[in-house]
Amino acid sequence: MQSLPSPASSPSPTPDLAPHPTRKRQRSQSMQSDASSSSLKRCVADADGLVRSPRPDQMSSLSLADQNQDIDAYMAEQEKGIYMMYFSQLHNIASLGDLPVLLVERGKASKMEIGETWYLVSRDWWKRWRKACTGEVDKEGPVTEQELGPVDNSQLLDSYGNLKLSVVEGVDMEYVPEETWSHLISWYGKASHPLPRRVIARGNLKEPTLELRPLRLKVIRLTSASNQSALEAPSHPHLVISAGETAKTLCTRLAAAVTPSSTTHLPYRVWQATKSEDDWNFDEFPSSHLESVGGRLLEESSKTLQEISIEPEDGFIVEFKQLNGWIVDLSKPASSANSAADPPPLFDSRNSFFGRFMPSTPAPVAAPLPTTSTASSKMAVRSSTTPFRSTKPMEPGTLGLGNMGNTCFMNSALQCLAHTKELSDYFLTGVYQDELNPDNPLGMGGAIAEAFGALLQKIWSTDGSSTTFSPREFKSQLQRFAPQFSGYQQHDSQELVAFLLDGLHEDLNRVLKKPYVEKPDWEGGGDLELIELARKSWEGYMMRNDSVIVDLFQGQYQSTLVCPECNKVSITFDPFMYLTLPLPVQKKWKHTVYYIPWSLEKPHVKVPVEIGRDASFKDLRVLLGRWMEAPPDNLLTLEIFNNRFYKYLDDNVPCGDMSSSDIIVCFELPCHAQQSRSYKRQPDDPFIVPMFLCEEGTHSRTDYTMNRTTPMFGNPTVVVIDQKKATDLDAMYEAVVSRMERWTAHARDLYTWEAGPIHINGIAPTDSITEINEQGEAVTMDLPEEGDIVDEKTMVLEDDVALDIPITGEPRRVGAKTGIFKLRLQINHKKLGTTQSFTSNNRWESWDRRLEDADHDPVLLREDDAFYCEFDENMKAYYFGDERSRWEHARWDTWEEFIHPELDESKREAAERKNKGLSLQDCLDEFTKEERLGEDDLWYCPQCKKHQQATKKFDLWKAPDVLVVHLKRFSNSRTLRDKIDTFIDFPIEGLDLGDMVGERAAAKRLIEQGIATEELNLGNTNEPLVYDLYGVDEHIGGLGGGHYRAYTFNHATDKWYHFDDSYVTPARASDSVNANAYLLFYRRRTSAPLGGKTHEKVQEAQHRHVQQEEVQPTVVDNQLPTPPDDEPKPNQVVPGQWLSSLTDAAFDSSRTTTDTFRLRPPLADINDPLAVSSTMFDFPEPPSQNSPTSSNEVEPDLEERDENNWWLPKASPEWDSGGLSPSSSSISGSSPFDNANLQKFDDDDTDMPPLDESIL
Fold this sequence. Notes:
Layout: H1 23-32, H2 40-47, H3 71-76, H4 99-108, E1 117-122, H5 123-134, H6 145-148, E2 173-177, H7 178-188, E3 196-202, E4 207-210, E5 215-223, E6 238-241, H8 247-257, E7 268-273, E8 285-286, E9 295-297, E10 315-320, H9 353-357, E11 392-393, E12 400-401, H10 408-418, H11 421-428, H12 431-434, H13 447-459, E13 463-464, E14 468-469, H14 472-481, H15 493-507, H16 527-542, H17 548-553, E15 555-562, E16 569-576, E17 579-582, E18 588-596, E19 605-612, H18 617-628, E20 635-641, E21 644-648, E22 663-668, E23 687-695, E24 712-721, H19 729-740, E25 751-754, E26 768-772, E27 778-782, H20 786-789, E28 812-816, E29 822-826, E30 844-845, H21 847-852, E31 866-871, H22 873-879, E32 896-897, H23 901-916, E33 918-919, H24 920-927, E34 931-932, E35 939-941, E36 946-948, E37 951-958, E38 962-968, E39 970-972, E40 977-979, E41 984-985, E42 989-992, H25 998-1008, E43 1026-1036, E44 1043-1050, E45 1055-1060, E46 1063-1067, E47 1077-1085, H26 1093-1109, H27 1169-1176, H28 1201-1204, H29 1213-1217
Helix pairs in contact: 2-4, 4-7, 10-15, 13-14, 13-15, 16-25
C-alpha cells in the first residue's frame, strides 16, 4: 500500500519545464504545440468566451497516509488529469499587456458547476502576480516575472499540511478553475503546494459549493484475533474523499486502502463505527471490539456521502472474507460478543421522521450490533442506539452532543434551546405534531421542526446506551435548507439560533393562509394613541404569524425617527426574536496624522488621534476639522510612501485598513477637497494638482518618455490652481514656489528681493513736499525724479566728508526666482497619482504643446495633471540638502505635536470605564441611545419630501417570556474582522427590565392620569418584569476559529451543567458569567404560566394523557393490529389506543442483556412531559395501511425471526445469487462462498431470550 505523499512531494500535473529557455526556443515550442495547447492565437480566442474545464465523472483514486498527511496531499493527486498548456512561455508575461490578467480574471469570474475542480491560490502570491503583470508598485517594491516563481500556497497550510481553518476567500486565498490553473502552471512552473477542490451540491437547492475541506475518514482492517496489543499511537491510515462521492465509491476505496498485499479479489464488507472512540490503537481491529464501537454494515448505494451523513473522522472497519467464512458470523447473534443478546424491539421505528428521508431497508447487522440503515439511525428517540444494545438510566438533559467537524457552534446553541423548559415541554408532549404546517411556502415542510423534536426526545430521554450522541440527522436536515451551514467550517452560533428559531416558527405557524396586512402609521397623539398603535401593529403581525416561537421568544420594539429639518416624528413598532446589544466598548484606531494647514503662517503639526476602528476617513476628517477649526470638506487625506502619494483616503476607506506604520497626511485646502462621495464637480472648480520633487534626469525630447527612472525625494504636496492662474504659466510657477516655502529652511531665497526705503537719522525719505504759497495755502508737490535734477556726471564726494546714513527699511519681495527648478508636466495622474504603476499611461507633456492649444482653450491645465519640480544637484543641495547631509535644510521631518483636549478627555474616560467595568445594563443603554443616520442610510421624510439624515432611537416596548440576548462581540465590516473580549457583567437572577419597557411606562402614566387600562390588554402591569438566566452560549478564541461551549440550567434536576460538545460536567451558575459569554438566555419570572396559547395546548396534551391512563388496560401481544372494521380480539390493541392501552403493563425501554421486558409504572401518576414522552416514544404510531393481505406484507413474527431475517437489507441480485457483499464488486471476482450475507438462526438457537409470558 502506498502512502499518501506530502504536499511537497505531490506529483506535478505538468512535466518540468526547461530552466530559462531562450525566447527562440520558447517561440518554437509554441509553434509546435497542437490545437489543445495554449498558443497565443488560441489564448486570445479563449479569452473571448469562458473556458470551462471538463466535468470529471469522479475524483481520482486515493492513496493513504498517516494522520499527519491528509487532505491537501490527497487533493494534489487530482492534478494528474490536467492537460498541458504551454501558452506564451515568454521571458516577460507583462509584455503581453493585459492578456494574462484578462484570461485569469475571466476564468476566476466564471460560474462554478457541480463536479468541476477548482484550485486555491494564496492571496499573497496572487497580489505579487498582479504586480508582475500590471507593473503596479506597492510598499514592497516592484515584482518582475523572473522574481515571481510558481504558485506558492504554503501560507495556507498548517504544520501538518492541512488547510488552515481561518482562511477566507478574498482575504487569504482566491479560487480559480482548472483551466486557469493550467495557465498559471504553464507560465510559471509546477506549484509546490497545489490545492485542488471539488465543486459539490449543497442544500435542498443543490447549490454549487466549493468543498474546501473534504472528508477525512479512519479506516482499518478487521481481524479475528482478540489479543491485539495496544500501540502507543494509532497506526491506521486515513482516507480523504469528497462528500460528493457515492457510498459505493467509498466502499471501494476503503477496501482498496487496507487490501492485504499478498491477496487480491477478496470479498469484503464494510462496517461503520457509530460510536466514536478517540483512537484505534491497533494494527488491525479486533472483532471482539466491534460491538463497543456500535458497528453496523455500510450499504452500498448511489447516495452521496453528504446525503448519508458521513462526517469527518468517522471510522470504518473493512472485513475480508476468509476461507472458513466471515469473521463476524451473522448466523450466530452473540458469537462475537460472547454474551446473550436482547430480543428485537416490539415495534421498530420505520415510520419515524428520519426514516422517511432514508432508505426503506435497514442495513444488515450482526447481533448484538445496530440494525439501522447506512444513511442514519432510524430511531426517533434512540437514533444512534440499538435495540440489541443494553441501555442504562440517564439523568435527562445531560446528553452530550458529538462534534462532527467544527459543529460546536451548533451543539452549544442546541443545548441552550433544548433547556428552554416551555419549548421542550411543547415538543416532548407531542403538541408540535398537531401544529406542523408542511404547506407553508416560507417553511421547510416541517422537516426542521420534526428533526428538532426528535433531537429533544433524545436529549431528554431517561435512559440510553451512551452519554453522547452525534446529531447527524439534525445537521443533515439543517444543511438541506441552510447550505451556509454545510461543510465543516466554523460558523456563528447566533446565526444558527436565528435561523433555527425562524425555521421552527414557519414550520409550526398556526396561520395556514397569510392575509395581506397594512402597517398602521403614527398620526400623533399621547400615550393612549401610542399604545393603540402598538396594539394594532402586534395584532396585524399575529394575523400572519402565530406559533410557539411567537408565544415564547418574540417581543416588540419601538423605532422613533425625527427629521432634523421639519421635526416630523415617525414611530413604528416591529417584532424581535432576539435582542442584539452593541457593546459600549469601541476598539480604537490609534494613529498620528500629519496635518498641513493652507496658511503658511500656521505650522505643520502631527496630531495623535483615536477613533473607532469601524470609522471611515470621512469620520476622521470631521474630527480633524473640529480640532483644527477647518471645514471638513476642505480636508484632503492621503497616504505617502516612497516620495509619492500612495493611497487616496476618501470616504470609502475605513481607518482600520491602515497599519500603524503608514504615513497619513491631511492637507487643508482653500476649496472643497473633492473626496466626498456626494460631491459633484463644477466647471469652475479649481485644479487640485499633486506636486512632486525630483532630480534632474535625462529625458528624451518626445512627449512620451515614461517617468520610470526619475529619482524622487522629499514629501509630495498639493497645489491649488484656480481657473485664472491656470491660464498663466508664471502664475502657476509662483503658486508652486509658495507651497515649497514650508519645506525648506532657505525659503527666503526662493524669491527675489529689493531694498526697502532708506531712513536717514530715523526719518524715512519722502516722495513729496508740502509748501505754503503766497496766499498762505498748503500745497503738496511731488519731488522730481533724480534724473531730472542731478547731473549725469559722476558725483565725487570729498574723502573727508562721511555720510552716516543708517539703512533701517525692510526689503520687499519682488517675485519668485526663476531657474530654481524646471516645472514639468505629467498627465494621467488619477486620484493625485495614487493609481500609478509601471504600465500606467502617465507621460510627460510639454508646455509648448499646451500653449499651442491656448488659442482654443486658454486654460493650460487638465484634470489629472501633475507638477514635477526638477532640481539639479546644486539647487537641491542648497534648498534641501541630500542624503549625505541628512537633508539638513529640509523641514519635512520637523513637526510640532498638537494634542487636543478632547483626546485627553477620551483617554481619561476610557480608563474610568476600564476600572469600573461594563454591565448588561450599559449594553441596554447603548442600544437605546439616540443616533444620527449615516449618509448611506438616509430616511425619506414624507413631510419634507426628501431624504434626510434623521435621528433614530430604539426602545423596548413589549418584552417576551423568553429573552435571548446577543452580545455583539464580532465586528465583520467589509475589511475588518475583530472580536471584543471585554468582560460584560450580567445577572444570574433578577434582570429587571421594568424601567426599560415602554409599554409598562406608558400604562403607568395612563393610570396616574386616571385612565383605565383594563381594556388595553396590557396584562398585570404591577408585576415586576424580572428575568432569570438559564443558559449561556460562549465563544472562546478569536475569529476564523475558536470554540463554542454552553452553560445551561436543567429544570428537571435544578442543576447547572457545562456542555463542551460531548463532554458534560456539573457547573455553578456563576461559572457562566465570564468574558466569553456570547448569547444569554433569560426566562421571565412570573406567577402565571409562560407561553400563552402554547401553554394551554401543552396542558391539554397532558390532560389527554391523564385521561388515557384511566382507560381499562389492554394486554399487549406481539401480533399485528386489528383492522378498524373488525372487533378487537383478546390480547390485541385497537389502532389509535397505543398509549391508552398501556398502564401497569407498559413496557420499560431500559432493557439489559439479561433482563426480559420490564413493566413501567402506571401513567396515572405521570405529569412530567419528560416521563410521558419517554413512555410514549417506546411505541410508534400504528400503521396507516390496512391489515396485510398476503404473507409478503406481514411483519415478521418474533418467533420466526430466524427465517425472515427482517433486520437485514433487501438482498441484491448479487447477494441472492452469489452471496457476495456488494462492497466486493470492485476488487473481487467470483467467490466460492455462498449465502455470505444472509443471517440465519437455527431452530434450536437459544441465545435469543424469549418473551416473558407473565406480561401476556
